[in-house]
Amino acid sequence: MERAELDGVTLEYEVTGAGEAVVCIHGAFIADTFRPMMAEPSLASRYRLINYHRRGFAASSRTGPASIRQEASDCGALLTQLGVERAHVVGHSYGGCIALQLGLDNPAVVHSLVLLEPALMVGESAQSYREAMVRGEQRYREVGAAVAVDEGLTVRWPTYREVLDRLLPGAFDQAVADAETTFGAMAGLLDWRFGEAEARQITQPALVFLGGESEALWPTLR
Prior knowledge:
The chain has helices at 35-38, 41-44, 68-81, 94-105, 126-143, 145-156, 160-167, 171-177, 179-184, 186-191, 196-199; strands at 2-6, 9-16, 20-25, 47-52, 87-92, 110-116, 206-209. 43% of the residues lie in helices and 19% in strands. The protein has one domain: Rossmann fold (3-Layer(aba) Sandwich). It is built from 11 helices and 7 strands. The protein starts with a strand and ends in a 13-residue tail after the last strand.
């Protein structure tokens, strides 16, 4: 991967394909979530795909906890450095929140939003989700990175390991190495506010994906 120096923060990134720009913002745990998508001919033949590691993941700068707004600024700065004036923005989970904040702070650069199970704390499930975030960080301190990462991924996808090891060899070990960032970032998510008032400010076309078995975790997203 290449590296971009952005106001004291180094971000690893890769670019494939040609056409309209699409930037992918990964969520917690797995920094290479979008790596398989980068090789899809149907996408790379039509779009300029930009994939990067958020601060604190893999070889990007480890700066300590960052706010959602800071991470949105990172994404915007990377696009500017790459000469991208407007992009389709794809965000997974935590990355979906970053994508939404980018849409609020820098609407001119966001052509459209694709949100893959954005980690929104709204509706009836908000309090239980907040409590789960706090418990996850506590478990990390109690049992260590490997166990906490496994527990965090298992609750989201009970059979994740076989598929993860096949599609992204080494991704679990990288997730363990990045655990301090993953669990430290929970504070940024807990401090972030996105409700109906903010949603009404999002004017770009938005497509929201929810997994068929995901309501156990995200009942509010229906």
